[in-house]
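For practice. Supply one:
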Amino acid sequence: MERMDQNMPFLLQYENVAWYDKGKVRILDRRVYPEIRYVECESYRQVVQAIADMVTQSAGPYTAVGMGMALAAWEVRGKGEPEQKAFLEQAAHELAHARPTTANRYGQITRRCAQLGKDALAAGQDPVQAIFEDTLASLNRRYATMQKVGDFLLEQIPAGGCILTQCFGETIIGTLIRAAREAGKDFRVFCAETRPYLQGARLTASCFAQMGFDTTILCDNMVAYAMQHEGIDLFTSAADTITRDGHIANKVGSYQMAILAKHHHIPYFVT
């Protein structure tokens, strides 16, 4: 399978998000990054706890729950088929509810994994491999789809311009960086630190700095000053939720930054 994480920052290479191998799931601990430390999970319930504890954030849990389902299939190997199927269903429910604000989206992933596992069992195939391969395929689809968003966002940034980010837009940040480097386009980056886990400082800023961009971390209360004096051309954030009528919900602080962007006539792109 061709992988779509080539030329991505360290944080976005598949093995450094969440990775199943030989009865364990290894998750990069984003709470301490750029210190490189992994949390190793030997049961799917440990994956549930790692997600609840914010070991991985942004889109990281989407990969972690899929890898956790592969681990669940490993845990119950050798049992009777009805017991394995019931175990997968239970794991799907618990992993989906590891973080209540995103249970619906996690559940779409875990239910699919459970069904794939059950189908593999019925066909006499390995459910662990089926779930693992589907999780990788899902990563590839997301990275490929989000590259279109990254390409579009790059078009909105003037050459030599300046952008402001909030939180860690994960795949969008990676695809924007990759598009910029492939196009030979450079710009400055201001990253709001983002409370409470400093995702902007630890994650977004690290990705841009690693790939050679002029990167500055801002305390969250410095945004208005930066908009007024630093020539910011564009503000961008991801969104935890986008409603059908166009409202968004995102990290604490996004609202005030959106108001400031409007006041200073800076376009705000929600990805």
